[in-house]
Every structure is written in structure tokens, then in C-alpha cells.
Amino acid sequence: MRVHLDSEKCQGHNRCYALAPELFDVDDYGQAVLLVDGDVPAELHEKARLAASNCPEFAIKILEND
Amino acid sequence: MTDIDENAPAVRSVPRPADYVEPIFGNSPEGTHVWQRVPYNPADYGPVADFATDFDHADPAYNPEAPGVWKELREGGCPVAHSDRYGGMWVPLTHDTVHEVAYDIENFTSRAVVVSVGRPGDLALPAPIGGAPPITSDPPFHGMARRLLLPAFAPKQIEPWEPEIRTLCQDLLDRMGDIAPGETVIDAAIQYAQHIPVNVIGRMLGFPSEDEALFRKFVHDALERIAEEPGTREGMEELGYYITTQIQDHHANPRDDLTSYLLNVEIDGQKVTDDIAGGMIVLLLIAGIDTTWSAIGSSLWHLAQHPEDHQRLLDDPEVMTFALEEFLRAYAPVTMARLVAQDNDFHGCPMKKDDWVLLPFPAANRDPKQFEDPDTFIVDRQENRHAAFGLGIHRCLGSNLARLELKVAIEEFIKRFPRFELAGDTRWSVGQIRGPRELPVRILEVAAP
């Protein structure tokens, strides 16, 4: 699994940071920062999906590797 | 004022400062230079009979029944309602249409965000700044103003306020005195919710806490008395006096608070003018008070009627992560507004320049196309892209603070009162901010403080 964050769409709702702090941080302006580069560890898949499905701006996409 | 504690001291009047020059921030009470009366006489209209064609969010029947109104309109095939009131107003009701207006900054300006009997006049701070930046700003000024304020409200700046907010909530609960379980009725809006955000934002701005009732008066006059004549909303004039006095005092005695920060901050190497700083202070003072107070009140109103959700929160505090967002989705307090910037056809609606457009984020939050079973409160709802804090570039600046206040206020209330129920009529606010203003509840169980 990979996660894609569209920083242009992010408006700093802070939902991803609250739900999956292992995967997302926030900068000094409250904008999301993706912490993982490449594959998401299996134990964080659920949190990644949760972050994506709670982003009001649809800024997070999950790319599932099959 | 009926929404002030009967035992509270009378609201003081604000003296006109020496050398007062009428500021151009906020809404000027009279005249056409800053503020223009729209052709709308409320006396010509009765109560709303059909919300599809005569929508009025200031009809006292609207806020108590709003979720039913949205559902009926959507199911009746009306994605966008209309009204001739306020000089012409459109109301998108689906998640898609609300989202579209919020994102379309070409056709819709934020120059005015509270529908009333007046619009900004020719000499109001011109777009793209507006009277209370950045909420009243359009790009490119919007982004500059927002970048000044975002760091102060970013998650890591807000988190340290938690202990102070918790103490504030506990003090309010202590002040309710002796409670006889099964008998004592308290008002969760008047004795609790309404005091929390007003104290926090007052402290952040460096304003005296004794003035909290005054701030509520400003909010009431700015956001609830929208169909009244401008000259009668004396709180609007006093707001100008008050902010001007505070700016003068902070210039003379700078201190470590948001007001001093805004008076010294620079855009492109230049300090912002007192008018722009004053407009930002108006925004911070007005926008953070009855919004969060409403969210706290609505959440407690829900819990009073749903002991199963209350019990779940007590048994499993971790569920609060999801419950908080579900309170915000189901009981989102804030409807915003825009003015139509240029004539445009919006899904067949012929929108004319200067028409109002309401942005009911709470209605978007109950759209079945976006939310499964939207009228059911699901305490641990897993997928929840709610729009309580808006969508697009105007996402609520104070959302992290609002969430923290709401979470702590609910946690402390349910910990102290493990069971409570409604005990009489709830009185709801009027206008764009929806929440209980009177919320009598009977306490059924008390935990030791």
C-alpha cells in the first residue's frame, strides 16, 4: 500500500494527524505532511485508510498494491 | 438579552473612546458608506410557509427543525432553495452544491459572510480584504492574512491550552453548587456551554474576562439580530468602540497576547494597519464564541436524550476520537454565506451579482449521497468527511481550538454528571449559528468533584 497526499487540496483540517500520527505530521501552519515514503507497513494500513476516509477535502488517496 | 444568566451582573455599556474615528472594520451601524441597506422589509413577510421558495434561516421555526427542513427539501427535488428575502438569497442543500460554491472563488465572494438586511457598501474595506479578514477576504489577500493567523491556531500551539480549558470547565461545574440527583435542574447552555469559548478567546486576545457578557452581546447583535434595522443593533457600534479601545491600550502597553501580535506583525515588511488588525480581532472575537458554545450545547442536548451514547463514552473513552467528529457532523453549528460576485447560472439557478448565497455546511453533513444513514448519530462512525469547519480555502481557522474545547467540555460534563436528561424546553438560537441557548437538564447522578 502507498499513500498519496495532495498538498494543494489540504486545508489543514488536521484529521489525518489526529487519526494516524504515525503517517502524518502537521507543519507550523497546520498543513499535513506525509511521513512515509514508499510502502506503508502492514500494521498501519487500517490507519491509512481511516485517514483517507476522513479527509473532508479528499486530499488523501490510498494506492493498494495487489 | 434573554440568553444571559439572570444572576449575572448587567452588561456594561462601552464608552466611546476619545478621538474616535469610526473604523471601517466590522459592520458600521448606519449610513451607506460602509454598509448599505438591502431592499427587504421583514414586516412584508410572514413566517415561512415554503422553505423551497421563501427560505429564511432567521425564522424562529428554522433552527429547531433544520435537519427536517433540509431532508424535506432534498427529497422534494430541491437541491438549491431560494428566497426574495434579504434582497435575494440562494441556499444549496446538498454536499455537492455546497462544496461547489465553497470552492468557486470566482463566482462567489466572501466579502460578506453573514446574511443581514445590509451588504458592505462602497467604502467598506474593499475586496479582497473585507471587514474581518481573512474570513471576509478573497485571494490573493486572503492567503496573506491567513498565513499571519494560522501558526497561532496550529495543532501544536493549541494543545498546551488543554489543562487551562479543563480547569475552566471544572470551575463552571463546581459553581453549580449542591446538586440533588433526580431533582436539580441546571441549564447546560447558560451555566456551562456559553462561558467556555468566550473565556478562552478573551484570554488569547488579552481582553478582561469580566467582559464575557459583553462579548456575548456583540455576538448576539452581529449574528442573531440580522433582520433588524442597523441603528438598533447598538452592540455593533460598541464593538467598534471596544476593539478600538483595546488596540489603543495594546499599543500603549504591548504584552504577550494575540492582540499585540497582530499589531506588530508584518505583511511584505510592513505592519498591517490598525483597521486590518482590528478586523482580524473582530473575526477572532466573534467567530469563536457562539459557534463552539453551540456545538457544546448541541452535543449535551444529544447525550441527554441518548444515554446509550453517553454510557459508551464513559465505558470506552477512546471512542471520543470518533464521537467528537460525529457530534460535529450531526450538529455542525455554522452556516456561512457568500455574495454572488458576477451573474452566473448555477445548476439552472439564475444568480445575480450581489445575491446572497447561504452555505449550510450542516445540511451538507446530512446528505445521504455523502453519508450513510445521515440522520442517525453513530457514535463511532468510521468514515466521516464532515464539513463542519467548512470546505476549501476558508476552512475554520480556529478548528483545532474548537475541537479541543468541545472535547474537554463534553468529557468534564459527563464525568461529573454520569446521567442527565432533558428537563423542559430547549431554546435554539436564531440565524446562521445553530445551537441551544437555553438547555434545562435534570441531573440524575453526580460524581464527586
Q: What pair of chains forms the biggest interface?
A: A-B, 20 and 22 residues
Separation, N- and C-terminal Cα atoms of chain B: 32 Å
CATH superfamily of chain B: Cytochrome P450
Query: What's the alpha carbon Rg of chain B, rounded to whole Å?
Result: 21 Å
Q: What name is given to the CATH topology of chain B? A: Cytochrome p450
User: Would you tell me the structural class of the helices and strands of chain B?
Assistant: alpha+beta
- Indicate the CATH architecture of chain B: Orthogonal Bundle
Helix content of chain A: 10-25%
What string, H for helix and E for strand, traces the elements of chain A in order?
EHEEHE
Q: Per DSSP, what share of the residues of chain B sits in E-state strands of 2 or more residues? A: 5-15%
Q: Which stretches of chain A are poorly predicted, pLDDT < 50 over at least 5 residues?
A: none
Name the average pLDDT of chain A.
96
Q: Beta-strand level of the residues of chain A, as a percent range? A: 15-25%
Biggest β-sheet: strands ordered side by side in the sheet of chain B:
2-3-12-9-4
Largest sheet of chain A: 2 strands, antiparallel
**Residue share in helix of chain B:** 25-40%
Q: Give, in spatial order, the strands making up the sheet with the most strands of chain A.
A: 1-4
- For the record, the CATH class of chain B is Mainly Alpha
Provide a quick synopsis of the model.
The complex is a heterodimer of chains A (66) and B (449). With 66 residues, chain A is of the alpha+beta class. Chain A is 20% helix and 21% strand.
